[in-house]
Design goal:
With 211 residues, the chain is of the alpha/beta class. It has a single domain, classed as P-loop containing nucleotide triphosphate hydrolases (Rossmann fold). It is built from ten helices and seven strands. Strand 6 and strand 7 form a beta hairpin.
Length: 211
Amino acid sequence: MIGPNGAGKTTAFDVISGVLAPDSGSVYLDGTDISGWLPHRVTRQGLSRTFQITRALGDLTVLENMVVGSPTSGWRSLLGSRILQREEDRAMDLLRFVGIDRLANEPADSLSYGQKKLLEFASVLMPEPRMIMLDEPAGGVNPALLERIMDYIRELNRTGMTFLIVEHNMDVVMNLCSSIVVMAHGEVLARGTPEVIREDDTVLDAYLGRV
């Protein structure tokens, strides 16, 4: 999903994920109307999301941040005497997947920006979602880390996981996405494959610009 600032991309994300209730229309996930559902209920239905600004809980360790996203107990595990073993095992597997398992017992506040990005990416996988919405995954990320994140997305997509991405980095969009929706002024301006969008005169005039 692309478009200029103020086009409505993040608002669309907020409506889909339950952060905002829609004024009209409906949101469907796998045929189920999830319009107006609260975020935790949307997550249990199989949809997770990230935000433009990473939201790691600094007073908790990396592992504890992962457990907060658990589909079974979440915060309740942290309030009990110990984290459930199955949740710890899953969290460690995901941290290992993104290459920061060595930081599991470190406070989240001690992580670099890039490491926080990886923690956020791993944490949205905890509820075992069928679909993940990523809000500007390339924002503030160096090229080497961005390539790693893109590889993780491709690997998970090959397993059947769907991604909806808001992004301003056109290299990422054109190389990663199979279908693109262009928004402007709160409306859909165009949709199609990268090849179609790249040649769309309306999109070129309104957003991508002409050479």
